[in-house]
Amino acid sequence: MAGLIGEHKAKTDAKGRVNIPSALLRQLPEGAVDKMVLKADIYKKCLILYTTEEWDRQIEIIRAKTNSFNPKHADFIRGFYRGTAEVKVDTGNRILIPAALTEYAGINKDVYLFGQDRKIEIWAKEVYDEHILSAEEFAELAKEIMGGDLPLL
């Protein structure tokens, strides 16, 4: 699968469903929409939508680095799985966001969906507006992470 890309605005409906833009759906592997995993992000107040293929890859990484008999590892595993739900894209190209995840992410009505390589981030518009980096902040971060001498293509 090529990396997912794109920034898309969407709205939730009264039942907590959000429309997945067709531009993102076309980028997903065939059959991926029948079963996906939605979870709370561990760093920011947003949600992450994974294909089951990518979810399985994430779980393998965690299994390789943790021991469920180690209390700290068990706490991490518990925290990682917290706020996780299996979802399916319905015939209207929507997923139902469970109420607990809607509350966690502060989703009311307007959301942004971002294709981000192997996942889709779902942000409440208000939360996203507070966390988005300015062009200058992003340039400084890019320099810090990628190095000052590396040109961005």
**Could you name the CATH topology?**
Chemotaxis protein chec
The shape, in one word, is: globular
Quaternary state of the chains: single chain
Strand content: 15-25%
CATH architecture: 3-Layer(aba) Sandwich
Main sheet characteristics = 6 strands, antiparallel
Structural class: alpha+beta
How far the N terminus sits from the C terminus, by CA atoms, comes to 22 Å
Kindly provide the radius of gyration, computed on alpha-carbon positions and rounded to a whole number of angstroms: 17 Å
How much is the average pLDDT?
A: 92
CATH class: Alpha Beta
Provide the low-confidence segments as ranges.
Answer: none
Helical residue percent band: 25-40%
- Largest beta sheet: what is the strand line-up? 1-7-8-4-3-5
How many strands appear in the DSSP assignment? 8
Helix and strand run: EEHEEHHEEHEEHH
